[in-house]
Amino acid sequence: MLAIAGGKGGSGKTTTTLGLARAFEGDVLAVDADRDMPNLHAMAGVERSDDDQSEPRQHPDDASVAVLSPPAPIDDDTFERWLRTVAADPRQSVVDCPAGAGPDAVTPLRVADAVVVVTQLCAPALRDAAKTAAMARALGTPVVGGVVARARIAPDAVGDLVGAPILGTVPNESSPVLAQPTVRAAYSRIADTIGLKT
User: Fold this and answer.
1) 3-class DSSP state of 145
2) Is the pTM of the predicted complex or chain greater than 0.90?
3) CATH number for the domain including 133?
4) What are the CA-CA distances from residue 124 to residues 34, 101, 109, 117, 197 (Å)?
């Protein structure tokens, strides 16, 4: 299970989750771990069922990607058990983590095998990215690298700040972002760098 995390909302975590899920080969689960404001399904163009949100929905543009939202309502213990069940699924899972440093953000980081930290090139986002990387390490989850969203280059200092190599940058493009060839190519390169693409 690969967690896609960043301390700040709007940093590009959801886009990165879907971009990497589509870039990895084989069957992939794109998982929304935000219990309060799940939006991965909306970005993917997948309907979220009101009666059973725990059923994966096939991505409309990629048959190898299934999108999974957390069941609701769900308490803290059940949420962690649900994530551990998802982690045990034989498919590669890429998890869109909620922003912040509260229990909702900590649980997916604790369950994940590795973390990719997403940030933009602004002081608040960079500060929060460093905190997120430190939080993941404190939980014993390795940070495999960082992704800089809405940028064409990443200064070396960003990797130093996150304490991991920068896996790549994703250019700022018009919506729908994931339909843009430059964005898809960026996520493909990042997936290759992570080493999960087979």
Assistant:
1) strand
2) yes
3) 3.40.50.300
4) 21, 14, 21, 14, 32
